[in-house]
Amino acid sequence: MTKSDEGNLYLAKSTDYVDQINAEFYGKFPYPLPAMKFELLEDPAFEATMLNQELGDWRRQRFPNNPRIWVAGCGTNQAVFTALRFPKATVLGSDLSSESLEAANGTARALGISNLELKRESINQITYQAEFDYVISTGVVHHNADPQATLTKIAAALKPNGILELMVYNKFHWTIPAAFQKAIRALGGNPVSPDFDWELSIAKKIIGELPVERAIGAVAAYRGLSDEMLADELLQPVLHHFTVESLADMAQRSGLELLLPCLNQFDKVENKISWNLEFKDRALSDQYESLPDLLRWQVTNLLLREKSPQLWFYLQRKDSGYGRKTEKEVCEEFLRTKFIRAGTMQRSYLRNKDGTFRLRPQLLRYPTLSPDESVGKIIEMADGQSTMWEIFQRLGIQAMFRTVNRARLLLTTHQFPYLKAV
User: Fold this and answer.
1) Which of 181, 288, 384, 390 is exposed most, by the fewest CB atoms within 10 A?
2) CB 223 within 8 A of CB 374
3) How far apart are the C-alpha atoms of 48 and 41, rounded to whole Å?
4) How many Cα atoms sit within 13 Å of 8 on the Cβ side?
5) What are the angstrom distances between the C-alpha of 157 and each of 240, 254, 367?
6) Structure confidence at residue 215 (pLDDT)
7) Which of 320, 329, 294 is nearest to 404 (CA)?
8) Are β-strands 37-41 and 419-421 bridged in parallel, bridged antiparallel, or unpaired?
9) What are 112-159's pLDDT values in tens digits?
């Protein structure tokens, strides 16, 4: 049998062993760094509305009013952000690192958050069965010895109609970090147990000396980062990575199916908001757009490689009572729906040097950023009386899949929350 050379798997010896070294790693390098600002929206249902819309539920019934949410692998901040984002929810945040949980608990206390419980536990050892309406696990599954087994545990925790928000590493994004991680271990003689202090010191020396023109010299971009950020990028104990194809296969084996891409802050900043390519050649475009969602996203993943979006998706159980809608079906329903402008007010809490928070005196109108110019006219014409198809007709916009999907993403999702379905 040919030896596998995928990701960074040298230390992936057993589930318990990887849990142990991950707890040690994130105890030494709690990640991410404590956030300096947290926001709270005055409309407690605003984020739930946008989540429903992003899932293609224009009647806003899929995500319940008082959900039970589990942040599986919450780190220092994510459970706190989630509790603020969904104030009507009951949120559980789990993590292996007591240091990360201590940081999260300190922030929650300082902000007076009352809908959050934090628990030190391994995702691989939990026994939750059909308990959660919404599970968030981003940047976690791929750091386990057996991602398939870990994802199956997470899937079992979902209620039959629950939603999973999952992010695993895109193979094409992590070629250099995985290579660096393996090089560090090999340089140390591939020890049975990692020495993170030694690895960090060696990593700093390497990125300070490697010539930028060399391929691995791309790590020069990491010069000057904090120890925590450097470790998270270049010293992970175990790192699996995936393509759309392998993620879909793993999901299927865990009793799950991919629904739709989840827009996230990283792809938003890099303007990678869609998993769909645009071709000028009509025959090529028709061939591409005729593909089922998974095949189309797979083609995009393979052609764009490191330029493709994050592997960040919404999933559901295959036995869910909600039939899966294709991306085209979601767009067709979007065209038949009437919208009004969405908005609320936002409060901001700023971290002081002593770890306490102060409330910024002025309220901000949310969303705070101006919409993309390409959809500005659509927002102006959203009156609650006209369907989106009628607005497209009046503006002379062709209702092609690519055009409709881009408008849907830029108008009705939690990263671009400008319109609300009537």
Assistant:
1) 384
2) no
3) 12
4) 25
5) 22, 12, 33
6) 65
7) 329
8) unpaired
9) 999 999 999 999 999 999 999 999 999 999 999 999 999 999 999 999
Using a 10 angstrom Cβ sphere, with 0-12 exposed, 13-18 middle and 19 or more buried, the burial of residue 304 is middle
Integer Cα distance of 171 and 173 in angstroms: 5
Among 33, 34, 94, 52, residue whose Cα is nearest residue 325:
52
Beta-strand pair 357-359/344-351: antiparallel
Instruction: Give the tokens for residue 3.
Output: 């030896």
Report the C-alpha dihedral over residues 94, 99, 105, 107, rounded to 10 degrees.
-120
- Whole-number pLDDT of residue 5: 58
DSSP 3-state helix, strand, coil percentages of the chain (rounded to 5)?
A: 45, 20, 40
Structure tokens at 161: 């109609």
Which stretch of DSSP H or E encloses residue 366? Answer: strand 364-366
Q: Residues near 177 by Cβ (< 8 Å), separated by ≥ 6? A: 233, 234, 236, 239
- Kindly state the helix (H) or strand (E) to which residue 390 belongs, with its residue range: helix 388-395
- pLDDT tens-digit readout, 294-311: 999 999 999 999 999 999
| Phi/psi at 399 (5° precision) | -85, 55
Unique residue bearing structure tokens 């956030």: 35
| 36 vs 252: CA distance, rounded Å | 39
Q: List, for the chain, all residue ranges whose pLDDT scores fall below the cut of 50.
A: 1-4
Cβ neighbours of 331 (radius 10 Å): 23
User: pTM of this prediction?
Assistant: 0.96
Q: How far apart are CA 166 and CA 262, in angstroms?
A: 9
The torsion of the CA quartet 66, 71, 77, 81, rounded to 10 degrees, works out to -20
Residues pairing with 69 in the sheet: 91, 134
